[in-house]
Amino acid sequence: MGYDTHVCLVSAQPLPNLIPILHQDLRPRRVVLLVSDDMQQRARTLGEILPQWGLAVESRPVSHTDGDAVRKAVEAVLAERKGERVVLNVTGGTKIMALAAYEAFRAAGQPVFYVDTDSDEIRFLWEGPVLPMANVVDTTTYLRGYGYKITEVRGSVPDAWAVAARTMGAQVGRWREALLALNACCEGVAKHKLATPRPVEYSAGMGEVLSLLERHGLVRVEVARGRRYLRFPGPEELGFIRGGWLEVYVYDLVRRMEGALEPLMGVKCLSARGVTNELDVVFTFRNRLFIVECKSGKGKHNKGMPYKLDAVRDKVGGLFGRVMYVSVDRVSDMEYLRAQEWKMQVVQGEEIAALPDILQAWTGAGRRGEG
């Protein structure tokens, strides 16, 4: 069914433009962007992304309030593309822009479709099929669409570390206090000395955790004057035990989920204004962005959590972004209730052991940032 040209109305949400362009049944050779003054930056971003797939891109300035001018601009595009298969994506723009463009295409007998993100369908308006959305937008493309460039990604960890992280995640119910104490113990470690300045307070849980970590070469327990201290092989091992294990655990679960595209861990991304955002684990699923923030320390790290996540979701994820907060310690009742009210997923304490099922339910629930 491919088309020669897509005519798109640029708006603040790039996904309704990107999804049909990348859809195997709709992918065009050329894209014509109708751009109002306030959407110039979005159009520039699309103009940078689309040529990566071998697509030609044109931008046409239009008024967002003058329907007659928009209709004439669309008629000019149709006249230039006479004899080609041209289709209008009527999803974006203002209502005036959409109605005027629709009128021009309708008069010319050319097809029009609408991207229904609530039902995950692409609907042709008067004749043509209803197409299911393909899972086509990966993490890099999603972030680029919202004006963010990935500048750094944490590399993969040794298999033994992933195995240790799985065990720690599965045993949070039993080891929660030990894991919190271990995190606090690591805070005073200088990266160049790589040893704890204070002895480790032992408990049954702490002994089991340290035994696991020693078996996988992540730490060594040293005894001095009858007290136990920890020595780390390197800064990477220190970072893993200090909290990186939780990111590895979540990332390991996500990368084994069917349908999750381009899961990334330890991401730094730069906005068009030069602001850096850090994301612990991020991936796309059904063309939506999922961001997971991980905290392995005591409750002071949870302060203001809903506000921080809401800012990240709004700036980086846009209308279709979702956020999850995974914390070994429990968050306050007030912050938990606020997170629920703001449609954020919170997984805390012993619930972390159930993350495989929670992630599946989370990615399959709701639309437009809900769930």
Note the topology:
Blueprint: E1 3-9, H1 15-22, E2 28-35, H2 40-49, E3 56-61, H3 67-80, E4 86-89, H4 95-108, E5 112-116, E6 121-124, E7 130-132, H5 139-145, E8 149-152, H6 159-170, H7 172-186, H8 204-215, E9 220-224, E10 227-231, H9 235-255, E11 260-270, E12 276-285, E13 288-295, H10 305-317, E14 321-327, H11 333-341, E15 345-348, H12 355-364
Parallel strand pairs: 1-2, 1-4, 2-3, 4-5, 13-14, 14-15
Antiparallel strand pairs: 5-6, 6-7, 8-11, 9-10, 11-12, 12-13
Helix pairs in contact: 3-4, 6-9, 7-8, 7-9
Q: What would your notes on this structure say?
A:
This protein has helices at 15-22, 40-49, 67-80, 95-108, 139-145, 159-170, 172-186, 204-215, 235-255, 305-317, 333-341, 355-364, and strands spanning 3-9, 28-35, 56-61, 86-89, 112-116, 121-124, 130-132, 149-152, 220-224, 227-231, 260-270, 276-285, 288-295, 321-327, 345-348. The longest helix is centred in the middle third of the chain and has 21 residues, at 235-255. The strands form three sheets. The chain has a seven-stranded mixed sheet with strand order 3-2-1-4-5-6-7, sandwiched between helices. Helix 4 links the parallel strand 4 (86-89) and strand 5. It is built from twelve helices and 15 strands. Helix 6 (159-170) crosses helix 9 (235-255), helix 7 (172-186) packs across helix 8 (204-215) and helix 7 (172-186) runs antiparallel to helix 9 (235-255). The protein is of the alpha/beta class.
